Amino acid sequence: MSYEEIEFTRHCDAVQIPQGIKITIPKGTAGVITQSLGDTYTLQLPTLGGLYRVSDSDADAIGKESKGPAPEATPSTGGKVSEHQVWAQLKNVYDPEIPVNIVELGLVYDLAVNDLPEGGSNVDVKMTLTAQGCGMGPAIAMDAQTRIEGIPGVEEANVEVVWDPPWTPAMISPEGKEKLGID
């Protein structure tokens, strides 16, 4: 991956990595885009001392064009939420330090879509992280939850971080291994 130097053209909200703290980056701040995956950018900002995640909705602040909305999450036949829709949304969730989505990393252990009697669906996801000390864990889980709740017909999403079984690199999909250069 090639890094790209940028300068913020306006004040912009960002999330500090791995702390998950929301801050506003001042106009004129210089930085380097270290990763551009899904609908977020990871930037190294030397004057602020660390890595920060900027949403695609603020791409203009770093001189980029928005990639547009995440893949369509329209309801399936009959208005019911399908597992396929949920998996599609989860493929847009990235650890800002790893260029592979959480599905291809093998971090999603269980997914269940439950129809509610009053209509709509409840989605339960069990996922893990590559390391228990990952400071971005809460932010990654919240990103997954927000994306799932954005699917029409989802009334509630519960994303639980679990540690059993422990994650290993063997859980990475063949596609993920290829992106990471792992045999």
CATH superfamily of the largest domain: Fe-S cluster assembly (FSCA)
Largest sheet: 6 strands, antiparallel
Q: Total number of β-strand segments?
A: 9
Just name the CATH architecture of the largest domain.
Answer: 2-Layer Sandwich
- The residue ranges in which pLDDT falls below 50 over 5 or more consecutive positions are 72-77
Explain what you see.
There is one protein chain. This protein is α+β, with helices and mostly antiparallel strands and 183 residues long. The chain folds into two domains: 59 residues, SH3 type barrels (Roll), CATH 2.30.30; 104 residues, GMP Synthetase, Chain A, domain 3 (2-Layer Sandwich), CATH 3.30.300.130. The chain has three helices and nine strands; from the N terminus they run E-E-E-E-E-E-H-E-E-H-E-H. Strands 1-4-5-6-2-3 form a six-stranded antiparallel beta sheet, with no helix packed on it. It has a three-stranded mixed beta sheet with strand order 7-8-9. A hairpin with a 4-residue loop joins strand 5 and strand 6. The chain is globular, with a radius of gyration of 17 Å. About 3% of the residues have low confidence.
How would you summarize this macromolecular structure in one to three sentences?
The protein has helices spanning about 85-90, 135-150, 175-180; strands spanning about 5, 10-15, 20-25, 30-35, 40-45, 50-55, 110-115, 120-125, 155-160.
Write the layout of secondary structure elements.
Blueprint: E1 4-7, E2 12-17, E3 22-25, E4 30-37, E5 40-45, E6 50-55, H1 83-90, E7 108-115, E8 121-127, H2 137-149, E9 154-161, H3 174-180
